[in-house]
Amino acid sequence: MNDTAISLRLGAWWEANARDLPWRFGRATPWGVLVSEVMSQQTQMSRVVPYWTDWMERWPDARALAEAPKAEVITAWGRLGYPRRALRLQECARVVAEDYADKLPRTYDELTALPGIGDYTASAVMSFAFGERIAVIDTNIRRVLSRVFLGVESRGGATSPAERALANRMLPKDEILGCDADVADNAGSAEHVVNSTIRGGKRSRLHRGERPSVTWNQSVMELGAVICTAKSPLCDTCPIADDCAFLKAGRPGLGERRTRPRQRFQGTDRQVRGLVLAALRELPAGATLPREDADKLWKDQIQLAACIASLDDDGLIEILDGGLRLPS
DNA sequence: GTCCGGATTT
DNA sequence: AAATCAGGAC
User: Fold this and answer.
1) Is residue A263 situated within a structural domain?
2) Are residue A117 and residue A208 in the same domain, yes or no?
């Protein structure tokens, strides 16, 4: 089975089985796609959906987010985790609004230069929002490509040059499926989907009109998320099981730990920081948490003080004479 | 390589 | 209790 056949089979599976996430299928602006990707960093999609929906209704574009009070942004981030993502997203919004006239730049280099946007998110926006041909590499794609084409589990840590080369080698060429230039130029843009829906009537809302590289990225990532999972891959229902080197090899080392054991959460600074921030989010808007109340949040006053200082360093809180509050 | 949240699953 | 999750900054 050649590579083109695999991508076609995966694409068909994608079209029939893709989760109906609200930022997919051309329903979101490029900015909305970027927001969904930042929220999804190290966070399950099912948890992201309600946050994203409320967020985009409240701040539909970069300029709106840029002008929001920082305390509101932190509070709206709620319990998504890694609240520094919220601050970086707002910083990103400021840059987009001021330096790019509220229009997300369309090159990888400009995107990775934005706060909170690294290799994965920049590539994902280029592919999913702009329809450009670029290899997207996340934990799902690393796991799937390594299993299917190398027959082994991917190792943890930073993406290796070999993994990057594999992702680039397997990324379908856009001319293979006869994508015409007009479609290719507009693939992925919300405007294109709206227009083609009006013109096309019963036209599929899924991957038709997307470049093969975009469908490939989407379908490989989706396969890793729902079928080719880390611990218990559902090989019985996998659309490319017949082509999988990992399955042929007897799934050697299935679910083998890919990275060092995670730091336990209980008792860590992350837990303490989370407690402090949660207490501040509970307050009425603009209110201050009195020092004596803050001191009760954690027994170890040394650790608590260090965490309050680090939250201040991050710009997530403000330290006043009488207590703490979310930054204005 | 380490730190940074918190929900969910096993 | 431990692992996992559409990572990024340092």
Assistant:
1) no
2) yes
CB-strand contact A229/C, under 7 Å: yes
Give per-residue pLDDT as tens, A224-256. 999 999 999 999 999 999 999 999 999 999 988
Would you say A150 and A55 are in contact if contact means Cβ atoms under 8 Å apart? no
Round and report the angstrom distance from CA (A38) to C1' (B6).
16
State which residue has its Cα closest to the C1' atom of B10. A231
Statement: the CB of A260 is under 7 Å from strand C: no
Q: How many domains does chain A have?
A: 2
Q: Residue A215 sits in a domain of what CATH number?
A: 1.10.340.30
Give the CA-to-C1' distance from A73 to C5 in angstroms.
Answer: 23
For residue A191 the two structure tokens come to: 């405007």
Q: How confident is the model at residue A209 (pLDDT cuts 50, 70, 90)?
A: confident
* Whether the predicted pLDDT of A325 surpasses 90: yes
Nucleotides of C under 7 A from a protein CB: 2-9
Mean pLDDT, to the nearest integer, of A42-71? Answer: 97
Domain extent at residue A281: 269-325
**Same domain, residue pair A166 and A243:** yes
Protein-covered nucleotides on strand B (Cβ within 7 A) = 1-8, 10
- Over residues A9-54, the pLDDT tens digits come to 999 999 999 999 999 999 999 999 999 999 999 999 999 999 999 9
The answer on A173 and A31 residing in a single domain is: yes
